[in-house]
Amino acid sequence: MLNLSFQQILIFDVIFALVVFIIYRLAIRYQIFKNTIIIIYWVAMVVYLVWRLLFTMPHDNIVNLIAGILLYAAEIGGFFLSTVFYLLFAKKHKRPVKTLAEFKDGKYPTVNVFIATYNEDEMILSRIITAAKNMTYPGIHKVYVLDDGHRDEIKVLSEKLGVNYVNRDNNDHAKAGNLNNGLDVTDGELIVTMDADMVPRSDFLLRTIGYFADEEVGFIQSPQTFFNNDPYQFNLFSEGLIANDQDFFMQSIEAQKDAYNATMYVGSNAVFRRKALEDIGGFSTGVITEDMATGMLVQAKGWKTAFVNENLASGLAPETFGDLITQRDRWARGNIQVARKWNPIFTKGLTLMQRIIYMDGIHYWVSGIYKMIYLFAPIVFLLFGVYSLRASLAGIMLFWFPAFITSQLAFNTVSEGRQTIMLTNVYETVMAPYMSFAVMREALFLSKNKFAVTRKGVNTDETYYNWRLAMPVLVILVLSILALIKGILIMFGIVPFKEPVNAVYINVFWLCYNISALALAAFMPFERPRFRKAERFPDNKSVEVYSLDGQKLGAGNLNDWNEIGAAMTLNREIVSNFDQVVSNGSKVIINVEGHSIEGIVSRNQVKDEEVYMAISYVNLSEENYAYIISQTYALASTIYKPIRYNNSISVIFLSLMRNHFKVFQKPKKG
């Protein structure tokens, strides 16, 4: 080990960690130090991997050798993924904003908005149709509801809201076929694709169409964002603490891919030039991730693409752990299908960086297999004595520790607070059993080429644990705990073990790292009630309350609201006996910015000199409905203020300890 004592190695590690941490602090402000820490990480990983190959591979028997090869292959695969990842972030990319002023002659392209739907309910569709219809745009834009559910009620809804309803005789090629049918019956120069659960903001077209003044632009993509809590946020009691698990990809990675004209089309919140789609024969079919393939093929034809990194449309994230698994299973299988049908390496017209980026995106879905290897390696060593690496503690501290510490700091540097490597480890651990199974099944042609629609708009008062989905994680967690207990007993000399105790130390640390993520993963299948059928949006607009005969009862401010109801805080100065005049079930009219909205009081709580009141709307007019949608789901991007999340693992654990066992109590609806 370069003839270094263990004490000298520890001194080296401490000095190395201090230097890297100083660089990390500087990297928060300066790009040159950000690149420096990335380079240090890359060099440290190369040194570590060379050492691993030359000095730690087990050769004593075939079982150990196979285990060693599998672990080393997982490390090499992870290194390739991280290399491309850091290559993307080597230079901060920010695309210049383009507005409609780019069209010097004032002639704006005609726009068709496609809302692809299959089984979404009327309330969800009403939101997006209303928002899409009322988007601000000085040119011509038409909305088309492409209904693959063949539902009469959706046709009636479309006619009521004044948009075009499109049906077809079959459901061939699922969503891609539905969109292609839309192309056949429309003629707009630009096509906006929207999933039915998404809602475009009022300025969506104002913030996107300007890029098409450049005749070479084939499509633009804006990030998918979400107005509800995903299963990670909700099931881990981390609402307001951690971001949606897709935010980092949607708002950071996509922005960096844009520097290489490799922005990925993600199926919604995008605008296409019709000519670009015609160049590739329409939306790609034959795979269940038609979006990724469509974007890649447009780029292969030489079209420019752009990522508009603004929150221009929000929608519903999967609301249960089972729905999340269904969605990611589809994405994983779809990426393997794309690799099989349009392998980026061999797709004519792509640049070298485009090939690398798209192959990296496909490769990412294989990382679930890598994670499974990382989870099982210390288990099989301590429980069954199967080696995957033979290394001394001194060797680990000299070669592995520098790579480990720089990997943590480098990731946290480039993520700029949107994500942490510990949180990423939790996400990857949660998904590993299911994604690895999906990828292997698809690679072996064992899965059906079926487009599974993710459920949206789930609301329930049930509390339950999804044991079927939890079983893979629970089995790995139990095995990890058993291995950890045995490792501790070995360290104290209580249980004999033929291998050196230094190897036990290494694997005990490894298990602790794995268990920290597995413990959170085990909470993911615990589903708790989601009572509200629609998300509430906080607001503080002034509000006045009147009786049906016009008497002013109170005034104050909104707390939150949606298209179903509103909550507000009022003063009692106008009617001192407000709580006697207005009770639950009373009908009132609230006035917000000149809009008079009738409702029934569902909660009326008096505290000190204030009244906390909630109403459910009745007889909501189309005008008032459109106004509420414009001030909630479709609030202009220039007004909307995004939440800044902590994204700390320790904060998640604290929140779980405080809140989890409360769900065993029968909750009250409200």
TrEMBL record:
Assign the protein's first listed, main location to one coarse class: membrane
> What InterPro entries does its record include?
Cell_synth_A, Glyco_trans_2-like, Glycosyltr_2/OpgH_subfam, Nucleotide-diphossugar_trans
One Pfam family in the UniProt entry:
Glyco_trans_2_3
Q: Transmembrane helix as a keyword?
A: yes
The question of whether Nucleotidyltransferase is a record keyword is answered with no
Write the record's keywords in alphabetical order, separated by commas: Glycosyltransferase, Membrane, Transferase, Transmembrane, Transmembrane helix
Q: Which domain of life is it from?
A: Bacteria
Any GO CC annotation of this UniProt entry? plasma membrane
Topology versus the membrane:
Multi-pass membrane protein
- Name the Gene Ontology biological process terms: UDP-alpha-D-glucose metabolic process
Q: Which GO terms describe its molecular function?
A: cellulose synthase activity; cyclic-di-GMP binding
The name this protein goes by in its record: Glycosyltransferase
